[in-house]
Specification:
By secondary structure, the protein is α/β, with parallel strands linked by helices. It has 16 helices and 14 strands. The strands form 4 sheets. It has a 7-stranded mixed sheet with strand order 1-10-9-6-5-2-4, sandwiched between helices. Strands 11-12-14 form a 3-stranded antiparallel sheet. The radius of gyration is 21 Å and the shape is globular. The structure holds pyridoxal-5'-phosphate (PLP).
């Protein structure tokens, strides 16, 4: 009984929210006092550190920026967009909503790097965009991809060139040879949703590295997040924070555990982002709204903390690695514990799916909060069947066998121990 109670009450949520309820309250009051300032320029300047003087456009969701970018070039006759098969399925939906066809790119074996260049050759005649997803660190294939695209663009006129887009939603701050992710391609997409190191509740940015988009045209026809939207967002995030708080979470987990064990899908659909893939007829209007001035204000102070937070997470990940590296049932896709990688969570791949299922089951039984991976191998999803033109066996293997170990900055030593002990 005492063991049960210990496990029960030691259970801490895996989620780390970069802004607390108190921070939100404090910022709201300050904003009301001096809100005449337009915070876009200040935020743009702060983010410059990661780029070389681009234009930045801020959206209610990063994916909205991606959609707008694709739509902006809607007259392109070439309809294909290369994108990592292992990604947030909503990014694939944006391609479809914008009127293009996704072509899925496989990962390298047991790696977050991709295998794109041969597909650029194969589809070059029909290709408009190549999306490079930086999954948890810099996807170093980008340098070869960039060379390849430059070669092809030399033979094309300006209206027909291929654009390189970086998805930096989970890779902001990673760099290789002093070049930051997001500054290499023509455009990049950032995300500021509530799970990121820098958050405006929801939010994201489109970075235009070579200033090719016309600012006026871009601001056209776009709604801004309203006061009512913000109240809704704050209420939702506050509820999430309450359920994941130190005192409430152990009880909330009982509910999660019950739902997982009994396939209580109605609840899981709401709670788990990885639940199922779907495509609507068109993009929900909320995604493409402009970020509000208040949300930009929320972001400003957080920019300076990005690198520090990344470092803390690198140290935690190194600890995981040191403790688990002798487990021969595991593979470690990221073993550079430096500026090349971002560890919002620490990824491990179980050689056999059976072992992954065993660990996840054990975590439920022992009251340890570990989640399933929320990216799908999109190519194998039913919704995208009609776009299947190649095969992503490595992405499939990763998506089926991966576990992301929590990297909550508020965890103490004993919290990490509880997770590591699952692998005994
Ligand atoms: C890889 C990846 N790309 C894009 C996005 C989209 O970001 P947003 O939620 O801001 O639309 C996410 C969100 O988590 C992501 O993980």
């Amino acid at each position: 009984m005492t063991n049960f109670l210990k496990s029960f009450f030691k259970n801490k949520s895996r989620f780390y929210f970069n802004i607390s309820f108190i921070y939100l309250l404090n910022k709201t009051v300050k904003y009301i006092i001096d809100r005449q300032v337009n915070y876009q320029d200040i935020l743009t300047k702060k983010l410059q550190k990661y780029f070389t003087d681009p234009n930045m456009f801020f959206f209610n969701h990063g994916r909205g920026g991606f959609y707008f970018l694709l739509k902006h070039f809607k007259n392109k006759s070439k309809k294909k967009v290369l994108i990592n098969s292992l990604t947030l399925f909503e990014m694939v939906n944006m391609i479809i909503y914008a009127g293009y066809d996704p072509v899925f790119v496989d990962n390298k074996k047991n790696s977050f790097e991709t295998n794109t260049v041969h597909l650029i050759d194969k589809f070059s005649e029909e290709l408009s965009f190549v999306v490079v997803t930086h999954l948890n660190g810099i996807n170093k294939e980008i340098f070869d991809i960039k060379d390849k695209i430059e070669q092809i663009n030399k033979t094309r006129d300006k209206n027909n060139r291929i654009y390189l887009i970086e998805d930096v939603a989970v890779g902001l701050g990673a760099k290789f040879n002093d070049v930051y992710t997001g500054s290499i391609g023509d455009f990049s997409i950032l995300s500021f949703n509530i799970m990121k190191n820098i958050t405006s509740l929801t939010g994201g940015a489109l970075i235009d590295n070579h200033k090719v988009l016309k600012i006026d045209k871009f601001a056209e026809n776009k709604l801004r997040v309203s006061f009512f939207d913000i109240v809704k967002k704050i209420s939702f995030v506050s509820l999430l924070q309450f359920l994941n708080s130190r005192l409430i979470f152990p009880f909330f987990f009982v509910f999660i555990r019950f739902a997982q064990k009994n396939n209580f899908n109605f609840f899981l659909r709401k709670y788990r982002t990885d639940f199922e893939t779907y495509t609507l007829n068109k993009i929900p209007p909320d995604f493409t709204k402009n970020l509000s001035n208040f949300q930009m204000y929320l972001l400003i102070d957080q920019v300076e903390e990005i690198d520090e937070k990344n470092k803390l997470r690198i140290n935690n990940s190194l600890n995981y690695y040191d403790r688990l590296k002798n487990n021969d049932k595991l593979i470690f896709p990221q073993t550079n514990f430096n500026h090349e990688n971002i560890f919002l969570e620490f990824p491990i791949i179980c050689k056999e799916k059976k072992y992954k299922d065993y660990i996840l089951q054990k975590s439920l039984n022992n009251y340890v909060d570990i989640k399933n991976y929320y990216y799908k191998n999109c190519e194998s999803e039913k919704s995208y069947k009609i776009y299947k033109v190649s095969s992503s066996i490595n992405s499939k293997y990763i998506s089926e066998n991966i576990i992301m170990l929590p990297n909550n900055i508020n965890y103490c030593r004993s919290d990490f121990e509880r997770i590591i002990n699952l692998f005994d």
